[in-house]
Amino acid sequence: MSESVFARAVAETAASQASVNIASHLPAMARRSPTKRAVVFPAGRDGEGRVAYTHLTFRQLDDESDRYAHGFERIGIRRGTRTVLMVRPSLEFFALTFALFKVGATVVLIDPGMGRRNVLSCLEETKPEALVAVPLAHAARTVFRALRSVRVRVTVGRRWFWGGHRLRDIRDDSGPYTMAPTRPDEPAAILFTTGSTGPPKGVVYEHAVFDAQVRFLRAQYGIAPDEIDLPTFPLFALFDAALGMTAVIPDMDPTRPALVDPRKIVEAIQDHGVTHMFGSPALLDRLSRLGASQKLKLPSLRRVISAGAPMPPSTLERMQGLLPSGAEVHTPYGATEALPVTSIGSREVLEDTRAETERGEGTCVGAPVGDIEVRILKISDEPIPLWSDELVSPRGEIGEIAVKGSVVTRSYDARPDANALAKIQDGTAIWHRMGDVGRQDERGRLWFCGRKAHRVVTASGTLFTEPCEAIFNTHPGVYRSALVGVGPRGSQRPVILVELEKDARVDPGKLRDELLALARANPVTRSIETFLVHPGFPVDIRHNAKIFREKLAPWAAERLS
What does the alpha-carbon distance between residue 270 and residue 337 come to, in Å, rounded to a whole number? Predict the structure, then answer.
């Protein structure tokens, strides 16, 4: 992002600091482009297998969210009311979310795919006052006697024995709704982390953070008013209305992107002339393999965004082959607590940084965006209450990544232990410890080297996951690899687990010899001598891309014993 563009974004934010509500972007779009489609949803297929779509224009979405906002206020969901929203991707999901933002409620959004135990734990932790949900969620709340703090219940669909309100009954056509004049520091939502290195944590999103994200994304990627997006992760779709993009909801299970039918993704892109797409590395791997096998081109796409885990250069290369000249794949780095932090395009990766990655230097995730500051700290597992420049490592060394800026959230909800470990006070500002390790090069670009918790500390030194795994991922029979440590930290035995390419025909003895040769040829991996083949790595439910090494380490220990 150029300095002038960013300065303009900062000035726009400063001009509206008295009151910031992320929902204010919707009525602005409704005035500017009332008949432009805001949300397009697949409603089924006809006898010939063709998709039938339904949609809401920006004016219709604004009007519908006003009706729900009036109804919510009447039944007691108002400014500051903690409200769990559990609704499947749909037209109603968008209208309800913006209605809750308009009344100033704090929206609690949880991935249902994280499992019953985690869902219930997250819900109990937030102590919500209202529940707007599909019948299954209300039934589960009753059966498991959960969410005793809930006083307002709204059923989206058929209501049975649990009482409360039906959504269709609370719609109130009283005209335009005057949205709550929320302050920049007021909570807009609580979003949960994937729980890739521990229990999921609720991240408090203030209205100013959402607003900054919208401005950063628009400026960073040059998003134009005529854009059409295919968001394969539902929560990212909410940014579309604020950015003025049409959101085309794909025909897929959003909790299983690694199992998506890539033909349906191509179908949606071609049906609507999609210009912008978000997809996890796992989803783009499937799409790019289909595209490469069928020599497909997707000429309408201007850019593809991917996040959630590092994308292998081979996947980037295949995806780049599907795009027209001038378009590329962007891989921003960040987390639920801070996004975007940095960004890099596929051309820079393929033409510049790929070779270093495959030599074990880490994955380049680009330069900081907007007003983000990045520092590399000396690695510590202890709380750091106050900032000091003495915490910072020399440039080029691998250390813990810490970030500060407008899109960095300030706290977790009801988790003082997590706040102590992840937040550093710096005057009125907050540094967030990303929980990742990396380094910065002489150009200020950030190189991601893995999760801090996943480092393997041996008697002869520390090994980091990304640099080591990239070396073995170059083997043609390896789909992906994972470094784990067996034994107590400080004297761990480094083990590389490999997941083979589908239908790969590999002789186990020959594979081990070839992996050992790769290890010995590089000083980064020279100490690794143990290799195991795993049938399929456990991964996160959100992007199906983050490897649960905590589950792989005990598996490796059992096999080796």
Answer: 34
How would you label 81-97 residue by residue, b for 16+ Cβ within 10 Å and e otherwise? Answer: bbbbbbbebbbbbbbbb
Count Cβ atoms within 10 A of the Cβ of residue 460 and give its class: 0-12 exposed, 13-18 middle, 19 or more buried.
exposed
Please choose, from the candidates 180, 142, 172, the residue with its C-alpha nearest in 3D space to the C-alpha of residue 159: 142
pTM of the model: 0.92
The residues that bridge with 403 in the sheet, in sequence order, are: 374, 432
Tokens representing residue 343 in the block: 């960004």
What's the rounded Cα separation, in Å, for the pair 91 and 67? 14
- Superfamily the domain 364-451 falls into: Luciferase; Domain 3 (2.30.38.10)
Segments making up each domain of the chain, as ranges:
18-211, 364-451, 455-560
List pLDDT tens digits, range 107-121.
999 876 677 788 888
pLDDT of residue 113: 65
What tokens does 144 get? 């498991």
pLDDT digits (tens, 9 = 90+) for 119-168: 888 888 899 999 999 999 999 888 877 788 999 999 999 999 999 999 99
HSE value, Cβ hemisphere, 13 Å, CA-based, for 258: 15
Closest CA to 101 of 123, 120, 125, 85: 85
CB 127 within 8 Å of CB 83: no
E runs forming strands in 46-110: 51-57, 82-86, 106-109
CA 445 to centroid of chain Cα atoms: 21
Residues in contact with 410: Cβ distance below 8 Å, sequence separation at least 6, in sequence order:
204, 206, 423, 430
Of 165, 84, 88, 77, the closest CA to residue 125 belongs to 84
Higher model confidence: residue 479 or residue 255? 479
The tokens for 515 are 């992996």
- CATH architecture for segment(s) 18-211: 3-Layer(aba) Sandwich (3.40)
Q: d(Cα 484, Cα 549) in Å, to the nearest integer?
A: 7
- Residue in 411, 409, 407, 404 with CA at minimum distance from that of residue 426: 404
Q: What is the distance between the terminal CA atoms of the chain, rounded to a whole angstrom? A: 52
Assign residue 261 a region: left if phi > 0, alpha if psi is -120 to 50, beta otherwise?
beta
Residue 114 gets which letter from DSSP? G
- Cβ 125 vs Cβ 171: under 8 Å: no
Q: Is 414 left (phi over 0), alpha (psi -120 to 50) or beta?
A: left
Distance CA 271, CA 50 (A): 10
Contact between 470 and 360 (Cβ < 8 Å): yes
Q: Buried b vs exposed e over 365-399: b needs ≥16 C-beta within 10 Å?
A: bbbbbbbbebbbbeeeeeebeebeeebebeeeebb
Superfamily holding 455-560? ANL, C-terminal domain (3.30.300.30)
Q: How big is the chain, counted in residues?
A: 561
Burial of 285 from C-beta contacts in 10 A (0-12 / 13-18 / 19+): buried
3-class SS of residue 442:
coil
